[in-house]
Structure formats: C-alpha cells, structure tokens
Design a protein that fits this description.
Helices cover about 20% and strands about 35% of the residues. It is α+β, with helices and mostly antiparallel strands. Among the domains are: about 1-155, C2 domain (Immunoglobulin-like), CATH 2.60.40.150; about 300-465, Hypothetical protein apc22750. Chain B (Translation Initiation Factor IF3, 2-Layer Sandwich). Strands 4-1-9-8-7 form a five-stranded antiparallel β-sheet. A four-stranded antiparallel β-sheet has the order 3-2-5-6, with no helix packed on it. A four-stranded mixed β-sheet has the order 10-12-13-11, with helices on one face. A hairpin with a 2-residue loop joins β2 and β3. The protein is globular, with a radius of gyration of 26 Å. The model is unreliable at about 100-115, about 265-320, about 325-340 and about 440-465 (pLDDT under 50). This is C2 domain-containing protein. Pfam families: C2, YbjQ_2. One of its GO terms (molecular function) is calcium-dependent phospholipid binding.
Amino acid sequence: MPGKVKVKIIAGRNLPVMDRSGDTTDAFVEVKFGSTTFKTEVFRKSLNPFWNSEWFKFEADDEELQDEPLQIRIMDHDTYSAHDAIGKVFVDLNPLLVPQSSISGVMEQSSNATGNATMLSGWFPVFDTMHGVRGEISIRVKVELFSDVSRYRQSSCGVRFFNSLSIPSGYKVYTICGFVEELVVNDDPEYQWIDKIRTQRSSNEARQTLFIKLSGEVRRRIGLKALELGGNAVIGYKQTFDLEGESGVVVRGIGTVMNLNRKQHFTDSLLTSAHSEQSSEKYGSPTNLKLVKLPVVKKKSSESDLSMIPKGISGSYEAHVSHISRQISGSQYMYGLQHEMPEYPFLTLSIYPRSFVVHIGGIVSARSVKLLDRITNPDEPETRDAWWAELRMEIRSHARTLGCTFVLGYTEQTSICDEVCILSASGTAAVVDFQQLEPQEVRTRNSSGSCFGMTSSFEKDKSFKDQ
C-alpha cells in the first residue's frame, strides 16, 4: 500500500536563547523521513518563530510508514560554525494509518480520487536529551494511503493497538482470536565502536531513534499475525525493552487479538454527558462480545500435559472440576478445548464480564535462568524465541494440570544483571464460559449497585463515584 506523507511547519514558541549577545535564536527546522530530508527557511532573532513553510512531501510504502518515525529537528543557525541543536520531535505515523471510522479528535479525514488522507495537527513539545523540553513547535502532518491489493503485503495498516486491560469505551468485540507475541533483536548503539568518538547527544539520539524504529517493527509484525488470525485490534498490548548490554537490545510485545468495531451510537457528546444518569443507563452497559469458532493450532499434548488432574488431588475437587467441564463441554465457543488446546491459551486482559469466569484454578508461574554469553548468534531472535516458548509451554502445562482451559492476565518479565538473565511468566489459570459473551442487553449496575466487568476505566470511575 504505497502512501504519501506531507508535512507543514507552522511556528515555534518559547524556544531557548541560543545567541547570548542578543538573547535571541536564529531557528530553522529539518524534516526527515527515511533517507529524505527537507529544511525550512531561517527565522532570525526570535524565540517565537513563524515559518509557515510549504508542504514537504515524502513517498513511502506502508511498511516504511509503520516502522519509520517522522523526525523533526529544530536547529539554531550559525554562519561560521556548526549549527546548534535545540531539540527534536518524533511523530509516530501509525495512528494516521487506521480506518477513518475509528479516528476522531484532532485528526481529520478527507477523501480524494486516489485514496484517503488523514491529517494530524497541533503543538508538540521540543525535547533535547541533554536539557529536556525546550519549547514547542506547531506542525501539520497529512498521510494519504492508496488501496492495497497485494497478497504478499508486509504491513498491518488499520490494526489498532490498545494498552488497556479491558475493552476500550465505545467499542464492541465480535470475536476473540487469541494470544499473539513477537520479538526483534538489534545491536545497542551505546555498545558500538563509534560511540567512543561521537558526542553524548548523538549517542542518546541514536539510541532513542533505534528504540522507536524497533517499537514500530514489533507492532507491525504483531499486526500481521493479528490479520492472519482474523482480527483487527490487539487489546492488552504490552511492549518491553530488554537491554542485554553487548548482546544487544530485545524488544518484545504480547497481546490479545480481537475483532473490534466502534459502536454506532458512541459519539463525542457521550463524553460530555457521561455523568448524567440517563447517559449511563443508555451507553454504560458492558461491552457486548461474541466469540466464533476459529481454526486453532493442533498440538499434541506432552507427557506433562496428559494428566488434567494431579494424582494426589482430592476426589471432591476432581468431581467439582469434572462438573464444570461438563457444563461447558457442549459450547461451540470453546475452541474445542476439551480435546485440543490452542498453542498458547492466554488472555492478557484483566477485566472480564460477569459470569465469564466459571472457575479459578490458581496462579500459575514459570521462571528460567539463562546466560547471555552462551547465545550462539546474538543477532538472531531464534534463541530468545526458544527461551520464551519453554516458559509458555510450562505455563500451559500448569493450567491443564489444574483442570483449567485458559490463563487470564498473562504477563512476561525479565531481569538482567551482567550476563545473567531471569525470565518469568505468570497468570491466573481459570475455566471460562464464552457463552456469557453472547450479545445481550445488560445494565451497567445490578440491583445492589455493583459494577460489571468489561467496562472502560471511565465508566468504572463513574460507577465508584456514584456509589
């Protein structure tokens, strides 16, 4: 999906004094995307410059639009010496790549004969790695995408990412597709030989730029997996940076893939009237969900997975688990988990609808200690993938031993000291009933005034305030 990026530099304000003799600044702006750079005119002797430049145009494919950030550098012009850096702004273009129906607020949409254009405008803080925030800059960024008909595309434009541990307000879920993960590895700029001869600011900016690019690459790859599973959003998304020293930087991401759409009746006016009882009754119901049966990875159980119940467990508990399993065995919404389980039956969300959790087995966790200097090829992700696969399979085995089908609130952490790396994963093993997620009209509160799950943080705060 090729696209065009257009950038317009409007003005700056509250810039720092760079010319001590006149307490002014001769500021200009460099706009960079990929390997292409444009410059504005120099606005002399002002701390509040007004450039109002022409539109700078970049052409790129959608893969580059997702991975590369738009870099805006504010400089102080010097005639007889090198230009001094004032600060920098990184603009992530991913929010401009989602469908028009899910964009609101400061982003505007327009259509033309060639594709859809989305524009972002506003004041952005100018940040310097040595001095912090140094003023603000007003910019306009417009992205035009063209229709993609390639079956071999490497982008995931349109997939939304939410860090929220519950369904975002104003959205409803049609399908839950499953767990998704990805990691990438790269060299750490602070451990490269060139770091010994470049300035501290250059070293900081090199690392900052690399982190942003790796973050975009991980999201793009996870988005591709989400599309393969039939979803269009990743909920409960968590991204982690593992700084392994000379071994490099590892960026990991996990989340729950869902098919998410906006509610037709959800508008911005809801936010202004949300504190009224009428709006809470009309719009505050828990998010309606529906799970459809999707193809799953067929995986044979290992020897540690064959026994669903420990040998030493009491007969009453075994009968209780069997009763729960019989209750939900006839449901078509269970991925066929009574006979075959997805490779990783994990959900990263923490808030669920009422009656969704039938039975809680307990906390399941796994840890592993690894030596970074034992990695054969530090530049390849295969070794780290194998490490995490071991932990996930162990978590899966623990859940099945407790007679549970899913792990809720799944998380992964690392702790690194010198060459020792400790990997840990944890979650809550539970039996869930997806029939409780079928669309139905339910009020936000029951007769006692308590809140149901799967509501936004805004709705929860309101409910507690009303109580």
